[in-house]
Amino acid sequence: MTTATTALNLPAHYGSCPFSPPPAYTDAAREAAVTRAVLPDGTACWLVTGYDEVRAVLADARFSADARTPGFPFLSAGQRELATAKPSFIRMDDPEHARMRRMVSKDFLVKRIEELRPGIQDIVDRAVDRMTEARTSADLVADFALPIPSLVICLMLGVPYEDHDLFQSLSRTLLDNRTTLLRRLPGLRLAVPADQLTYNQDSIVYGLCALPVTWA
């Protein structure tokens, strides 16, 4: 393992492309697998960019994904507030993370995904048709990238067609870190087998409670 001796100030500025890593991160990765870094509040930390080194960190229980862990690095005070107020699934350590993961793992088995393939294909085909039918332009993000994931989740959870607009609205609310929930949420109906009903309802409620909410 190689370690850079010069500390990198975080966060680094993006270059000309907002979808590419900041040039400083790319340069640091070329120089060493692990780079000394400094957070905005002056706290020292490490930036790990080497493939093997990242895998080692992720597999080592001495490192924590829980933002409430003392010494957890934050790039801003706002990030600290969001990450610690209501920890989400990705901010959990085992055994709680493993328990939550087991609740959803069966929906991502190869057999289950193959069962969903025709429905997913239909969702994509309909989105493409709406974008191209009698139109000369379309917004790839608003018309395709944003609605398709939430519609696929609707398919997986068994959300009825008439509730799709509500579900997509709630999805946009969560992605925008809003705090207002629609009053109709408790009445959301799920067209799923009885033995899966509790599981799916819990999944929705857990996802919506990942952020602080106020009732409209």
Describe the structure.
- The strands form two sheets. This protein has a three-stranded mixed sheet, covered by helices on one side. It has a two-stranded parallel sheet with strand order 4-5.
- Mean pLDDT is 77; it is low at 177-216.
- The protein is mainly alpha-helical.
- It is built from nine helices and five strands.
How do the helices and strands line up, and which of them pair or pack?
Layout: E1 3-9, H1 23-31, E2 34-38, E3 44-48, H2 51-59, H3 77-85, H4 96-105, H5 110-132, H6 140-145, H7 147-157, H8 164-175, E4 180-181, H9 194-208, E5 214-215
Helix pairs in contact: 5-7, 7-8
Give a brief outline of the structure.
With 216 residues, the protein is mainly alpha-helical. The protein contains nine helices and five strands, in the order E-H-E-E-H-H-H-H-H-H-H-E-H-E.
Summarize the helix and strand pattern as letters. EHEEHHHHHHHEHE
- The percent range for strand residues is 5-15%
What number is the mean pLDDT?
77
Q: Write down the Rg.
A: 21 Å
Unreliable segments of 5+ consecutive residues: 177-216
Helical content, roughly?
40-55%
How would the global form be characterised? globular
Q: Strand order within the widest sheet?
A: 1-2-3
Number of helices: 9
Question: What's the main sheet like?
Answer: 3 strands, mixed
Report the span from N to C terminus: 53 Å
Give me the secondary-structure category.
Answer: mainly alpha
Number of strands: 5
